[in-house]
Amino acid sequence: MLKDTVAKYRPFPGVHLPNRQWPTRTLTRAPLWCSVDLRDGNQALAVPMNVSQKLELFDALVKCGFKEIEVGFPSASNTEFAFNRRLIEENRIPDDVTIQVLVQAREDLIEKTFQSLVGAKRVVIHMYNSTSPAQRRVVFGKSKDEIKAIAVHGAKWIQERLHRLKGTDVTLQYSPESFSATEVEYAKEVSEAVMDVWQPTPQRKMILNLPDTVEVAMPNVYADQIEWICTNIKSRDSLIVSLHTHNDRNTGTAATELGLLAGADRVEGTLFGNGERTGNLDIVTVALNLYMHGIDPRLDFSDLNGIREIYERCTGMTVPPRQPYAGELVFTAFSGSHQDAIKKGLAEWEQKTLNPQPSTLNAHWDVPYLTIDPRDLGREYREVIRVNSQSGKGGVAYLLESEFGIELPKDMQREFGPIANDLVDALGREVSGQELKAMFWKEYIERATPWSLIHFHADGADGVFQCRASVKRDGQELKLTGKGNGPIAAFVHALQTGGAPKFEVSNYREHALSAGEEASAISYIQIKLADGKTRWGAAVDTNIELASIKAVLGALNRA
Asked: Residues 285-323: pLDDT tens digits?
């Protein structure tokens, strides 16, 4: 980008709409949805889908709940025509699903389109022609009246052939292509000319699709354009106003949501936003944006990983790792503070749902950093936390607990977190749960010098315990005895009579690691030295008492 070239650009003019209503409205229901993956999405692929791939994706779209699916441009190629015929002749279209076909306002293309639809139960015939000043000037070299005449002739050619689809429920759709770059008054004029031919009624509506074919303005301008049309066009109650946004300014989702606020009824888009240039609207994103606000989107994305897999296999495209809702990393937190907040939020949610109280019977999802429950999309909590050099104690603790049942005490998290962080930082990459466990084992469980346990036995009566122990110190065996108000206290006394530095046990935790006859327990011991410094130790044993004794030595070894 060169600074001295900016003068050749200009801001897009706004719409005069002094009494606009959309900024104060709230979405309360889902729009009608139409998937254009098999046409608009397909034409943007370097290698378009073959018939078998289109059939697989069509079936996936039906399973998601789409009731309108644009299946192709049957007059464009033999492959598109054959796909249409196969869907119809093999009875692959459910009775409640409408197929949509696209056609330009040209008589020869309209004729072939009708041939492709014979025998279909429910169809939308979608006719379009370009209306923007640049298209009128550069592509067609025609005046406004001549461009309008193209639309009117196309509408008549379709109207004259409708009798040939007897027994088919036909809905007609018109798009002034490049609507968002067209003067709203002229877009209205052309659209009303088409309406005059098709004569829609409130009982038999037509679809007026107003595409943001190329994003040329901020999304609020598109919303103004939609509201202006909805307010000023005649017979609004005989129209289904539809949106079709692209993503050239990376605001396709915003433009669609504002367009719905502005009065639109229907949305066209693709799974994960596949489309020309920077892509079409991502229907998954808009639908799940509604879902996270408690609005039923009337689409089923409960197996989002499976849908993504089919999409990637059929199109050859890849869903980016940061794609909203569907990307590999969107339910992953690397920041330590985020990880800690997520862990606490998930724990609170489980408490509310597993042990509901009167005050939490209608609990709403409110987990920090997670706008939606991954399980609602067929994803799992193990995807939420990963650990790299940016992770803190919360992420480390979560991974150890979720994968191995190792529940570190809070103070121990604060001690081990920086240790793990330094080790991971030295590796310069993300680490797996198994690698993190190995780091913990090496730092705590496997500490065997200078002190290690050979034998321990304790007896107690009336709150006084006597212990006999054999330990190694720097390879030399020592036989020790001690007493205290419990086995651990007795062992600490024995160690100090054997020359260990002065310390006291300041924290103790233990829990089971596994179930069954071979169940093992892990013990965590924190000791406080004479200078006030603290150290944690940990040990694992099938005998919880021995695990605690070994943990004392582990802490002493780390002192």
From this structure: 999 999 999 999 999 999 999 999 999 999 999 999 999
| pLDDT one-digit tens code per residue, 51-92 | 999 999 999 999 999 999 999 999 998 989 999 999 999 999
* Pairing state between β 169-177 and 206-212: parallel
> For residue 517, what pLDDT is reported?
53
Q: pLDDT (tens digit, 9 = 90+) per residue, 202-212?
A: 999 999 999 99
Same fold, 30-315 and 451-558: no
Residues 375-414 as b or e (16 or more Cβ within 10 Å = b): eebebebeebbbbebbbbbbbbbbbbebebebbbbeebbe
Q: What is the pLDDT of residues 103-125, one digit of tens each?
A: 999 999 999 999 999 999 999 99
Amino acid 32: pLDDT? 98
The rounded distance, in Å, linking the Cα atoms of 444 and 416 is: 9
Closest to 116 in 3D by CA, of 73, 159, 70: 73
Strands (E), 5-149: 32-35, 68-72, 98-104, 122-130
- Residue 167 to residue 20: CA distance in whole angstroms: 43
Contact yes or no for 193/176 (Cβ under 8 A): no
d(CA 35, CA 29): 18
Start-to-end Cα distance in the chain: 60
Beta strands per DSSP E along 264-359: 266-269
What is the pLDDT at residue 5? Answer: 85
Burial 491-518 (b: 16+ CB within 10 A, else e): bbbbbeebebeebebebbbbeeeeeeee
Of 485, 483, 479, the residue nearest 498 (C-alpha): 479
Residue 99 DSSP SS3 = strand
Top pLDDT among 515 and 178 is at 178
SS3 category, 29? coil
For residues 117 and 429, which has the higher predicted lDDT (pLDDT)?
117
d(CA 243, CA 265): 8
Helix pair 144-161, 184-198: axis angle to 10 deg: 30
b/e map of 199-222 (b: 16 or more CB within 10 Å)? ebeeeebbbbbbbbbbbbbbbbbb
Per the listing, tokens 């004794």 go with 549
Q: What is the pTM of this model?
A: 0.79
Q: Report d(CA 111, CA 169) in Å as an integer.
A: 18
505 vs 525: CA distance, rounded Å: 7
- 30-315 CATH, one of 1.10.10.10, 3.40.47.10, 3.30.420.100, 3.20.20.70: 3.20.20.70
Neighbours of 364 (CB within 10 A): 8
451-558 has CATH 3.40.50.150 classification: no
The CA–CA distances, whole Å, from 191 to 144, 198, 222, 423 equal 13, 11, 17, 66
Widest pairwise Cα distance in the chain? 107
Domain boundaries, the chain: 30-315, 336-442, 451-558
